[in-house]
Amino acid sequence: MQYTLYDYLPSGNGYKVRLTAKYLNIPYRLVEVDILKRATRTPEFLEKNPNGRIPLLEIEGRGFLWESHAIISFLAEGSELMPADPWQRARVWQWLSFEQYNLEPNVATVRFWVGIQRKTAAELGDRLTEKVARGYEALAVLETGLQGKEFLVADRFTLADISLYAYTHVAAEGGMSLDDYPRIRAWITRVAAQPRHAPITAG
Amino acid sequence: MQYTLYDYLPSGNGYKVRLTAKYLNIPYRLVEVDILKRATRTPEFLEKNPNGRIPLLEIEGRGFLWESHAIISFLAEGSELMPADPWQRARVWQWLSFEQYNLEPNVATVRFWVGIQRKTAAELGDRLTEKVARGYEALAVLETGLQGKEFLVADRFTLADISLYAYTHVAAEGGMSLDDYPRIRAWITRVAAQPRHAPITAG
User: Fold this and answer.
1) A26: contact with B, CB 8 A cutoff
2) A1, A28 contact by CB (below 8 A)
3) Fold for domain A86-192?
4) Which of A137, A152, A162, A165 shows the shortest CA–CA distance to A91?
5) 0.80 exceeded by the pTM?
6) Tell me: the pLDDT tens digits for B11-52?
7) Which helix (H) or strand (E) holds A151?
8) Is B143 within 8 Å of chain A by CB?
9) Which residue of B51, B73, B105 is in closest CB contact with A93?
10) pLDDT digits over A128-158, tens only?
């Protein structure tokens, strides 16, 4: 199957897809899209994804698939990154959902505002304070989830680790600290030691 | 398998699970939890779900599963609600992710503030205006997704329809109108006509 990935390299959501493809040795053509120039909101892009977001995967002969977690689940189906056991699969979905609802909208947004758009705390005001507080709440849940574990699900590296790692390991770019989360820090080291690991902005 | 569902009946996220279980004839014991009294933030509840939220499924002999989409995916695996074809499965995941990131945080939050907590527009100010605008953006994407379709994926009723239906069909409780979304209105009628359908607050 021939894949084209529309992506913005600093994106953690895109990174989830790139890391999954790299781990599974799945080749793809990369088309970089500059979200800062609103290149995902053009009529041409909206034809591909009406939600106007990257990552977007084009699958030759099939069409377009959007949403990072849908893309990585599609790529990883049947591989060692997605357990076959129904209960373990469900735990992977649980962590993906948690990432998307509690961690990403806070930790990733803070990084985007502060680290990428270079907005100041004074400009952002209460919106920043609230996102930071909720981001730390999400990190605390992740810290609890890692209790007694090397990886989040099934004692091995899965999509859950890829998803949660994507924005957690760059939380500092938004000014957030992992000092109070020793299990997260140790787990970040383990994830980065996986075979075929690559840094976030590698295409 | 013996299931216990911890839930709050007005919750659309809980409704996704109840509707899936009803459709698949899966019995469960219901434990109602009053989120307005912060009953999901007690030490006892946080032991079950460190993220402090309903719906929460307890599976006898297994443990606890949180996150509505993880729970419905677990319950529906192998059933007609979850396609076996990898591409169609991926499209279901795409719509679940979209619901969770773009529709729920806006349409459901507006309904919670206005319809359940009974806060006024004056109290809520800009936060309400922003959530309403983003909610309508999400509804526009859903309207586009329904173009030429009876249901969202695979020409039949799947988890994608259950998930998107949950908060969309009660958008008016938050003061949001579906007048500009004729495909959504027709699809709501089709979903409500499915066998074993039940209203949102039915346990």
Assistant:
1) no
2) no
3) Glutathione S-transferase Yfyf (Class Pi); Chain A, domain 2 (1.20.1050)
4) A152
5) yes
6) 999 999 999 999 999 999 999 999 999 999 999 999 999 999
7) none
8) no
9) B73
10) 999 999 999 999 999 999 999 999 999 999 9
